[in-house]
Fold:
Amino acid sequence: MRVAEVWMDEYKEDFYISRPNLVGKNFGDVSEMKAIREACNSDKDRNSFKWFMDNVAYDLPKYYPRPHRNVIWGEVRSFESLPLHSQQNETPCFVLVSKYGWQ
Structure:
């Protein structure tokens, strides 16, 4: 998580999409690591994570494409699979039982 926060720029969203259980977790103080990165980055365009992905790991998206930008990721289940379902309701119904993502 700390590596993603310091080095991955806009790609850190991809990290959190693939690991939704880490969203909102405390990763500690990374200000010193960010200061080291800033000191090393004399050429901002060449030392960005995007530059790394375009010039060094250029074939990575071929094997691991970036995830789609959904507003909310979650899980949808049939209402019948939930313990609160009443057998009297004959109409099929679906409910969002959990959600996570960028809000």
